[in-house]
Design a protein that fits this description.
heterodimer, A: 231 residues, mainly alpha, MetI-like fold, B: 229 residues, 79% helix
Chain lengths: 231, 229
């Protein structure tokens, strides 16, 4: 094994790292922002409103991310009407297609996570909020959502890791993320070991950094649940 | 109705291959999962450390990167070892083997955690009672551990299976003719990518939906003896 190849091409990996971090953070942010209202509707709205949300979640959780990405990147171009629309300049770019697919995918998973957390809100908390005369919106903002986020955090941290790992698929549609960088180096020097092991190391460092940060956040958020005197 | 321009049978072949990959990888994952869980719960600190490293590495690295590493890296490795043992021809690594072993290896780590939890959930006292009756270790495992372990393992196992099926889509990237790749070829020939990827998506939905129903039935069956709240 010869890791000097990696040292010489390190800037490709750094570009890849930037792309990976950008794709993952934007998708997660967009997915989360869309997931909150969807989860609220999913727990409170009527059947007619719930049906399309259910269908959306069912589709995105039941099919592979790769197929979803191909459907958007290759599939949308099948329709001439779409090609002439104002959306086409965006959807002909691989980068935008990856962002679009990842956001919807993580949104579907996050909707389910938050829905589960909202549904397990203790009845007493809701009754107390009602008794204090809060409107539904105020109750959501002050009582239901903050406590739901706390309960959702462990599952959501898994979702963040899944999104990071899923983002490696972007390399399949020509985007140079960390995996894409590894594929370039691998094929240029015929050195798959060095190239992919380096990529693996990058992902591991990111994964464990995220895990560490979430542990810190958990300590902060669950402070009121700790027995007095500890930590 | 959807017109597939005669590519229906080809997509069907791909679906069969997807199922073959899924089941083969599941077998490998279950074997690795049991070995991993036993190692994590064993008295040997070396086994525990190895199992810990295994599950940690898998959680930290994307499945696609592992698959490319096994496929391309394995290719180089085999052709370096080949001449050393007196085999001079170029050896092509079989993408089916590379695919199922990578997916099996990845999900073996997830199964390790599932089985470990399930083993820990079985009441110690019952195992001791088994030994007190003079049962051998194997008999205690078969009669007492296994039936109860299955119940605790099923929900986690089911989740792993559903994720595994979707992960098999990655084998299309290393050139295996699963349904995603068959759809890509049909899409290229007919210029109807949307149609074919939708068909593939529906196939995945069918497979996962049927799986969910079977898993629900099994969960019900294995918890017959348990009182529900």
């Amino acid at each position: 094994m010869d890791f000097s190849i990696i040292a010489e091409n390190f800037d490709i990996y750094i570009d890849g790292l930037k792309n990976t971090l950008f794709l993952v953070s934007i998708s997660l942010a967009a997915g989360l922002i869309m997931a909150i209202p969807l989860a609220v509707l999913r727990t409170s709205a009527g059947k007619v409103v719930q049906a399309p949300i259910r269908a959306f979640v069912y589709f995105f959780r039941g099919t592979p991310l790769l197929v979803q990405m191909f459907l958007v990147y290759y599939g949308f171009g099948q329709f001439d009407v779409f090609k002439e629309s104002i959306f086409w300049p965006f959807f002909k770019e691989a980068y935008f297609c990856a962002l679009f697919t990842f956001s919807l995918n993580t949104c579907a998973y996050t909707t389910e996570i938050i829905r589960g957390a909202i549904e397990t809100t203790p009845h007493g908390e809701i009754e107390a909020a009602r008794a204090a005369g809060m409107s539904t919106f105020l109750m959501l903002r002050r009582i239901v959502l903050p406590s739901a986020f706390r309960r959702a955090l462990p599952a959501y941290s898994n979702e963040i890791i899944f999104m990071l790992h899923g983002s490696a698929l972007a390399s399949v549609i020509t985007i140079i993320d960390i995996t894409g960088a590894a594929r370039i180096v691998s094929s240029r020097y015929y050195s798959p070991y060095e190239a992919f092991l380096t990529a693996a190391a990058f992902y591991m460092v990111i994964t464990f950094t995220i895990v560490f940060l979430i542990k810190r956040l958990e300590v902060h958020w669950y402070k009121h649940l700790q027995p007095p005197g500890s930590t | 109705m959807l017109s597939l321009h005669g590519y229906g049978p080809s997509i069907f072949e791909g679906t069969v291959l997807t199922l073959e990959v899924s089941f083969s990888a599941l077998m490998i994952a279950m074997v690795l999962g049991i070995v991993g869980a036993m190692s994590k719960l064993s008295h040997s600190s070396i086994l525990r450390t190895v199992a810990q490293i295994y599950t940690t590495v898998i959680r930290g690295v994307p499945d696609l990167v592992l698959m490319l590493l096994v496929y391309f890296g394995g290719q180089v490795l085999i052709n370096q070892i080949g001449p050393l043992v007196g085999y001079d021809e170029y050896i092509d690594i079989n993408p089916f083997i590379a695919g199922i072993s990578t997916i099996g290896f990845i999900f073996g780590a997830y199964m390790t955690e599932t089985f470990r939890g399930a083993i820990l959930a079985v009441n110690r006292g019952q195992l001791e009672a088994g030994y007190a009756y003079g049962m051998s270790g194997g008999l205690v495992f078969r009669r007492i551990m296994l039936p109860q372990m299955v119940r605790h393992a099923l929900p986690g196992f089911g989740n792993n299976w559903l994720v595994l099926i979707k992960t098999t889509a990655l084998v299309s990237i290393i050139g295996l003719d699963d349904m995603v790749r068959k759809a890509a070829m049909a899409a290229g020939a007919t210029r109807m990518p949307f149609t074919f990827y939708v068909v593939v998506a529906i196939n995945y939905l069918l497979i996962t939906t049927v799986s969910i129903y079977i898993l629900k039935y099994l969960e019900k069956r294995y918890s017959v003896g348990v009182r529900r709240e």
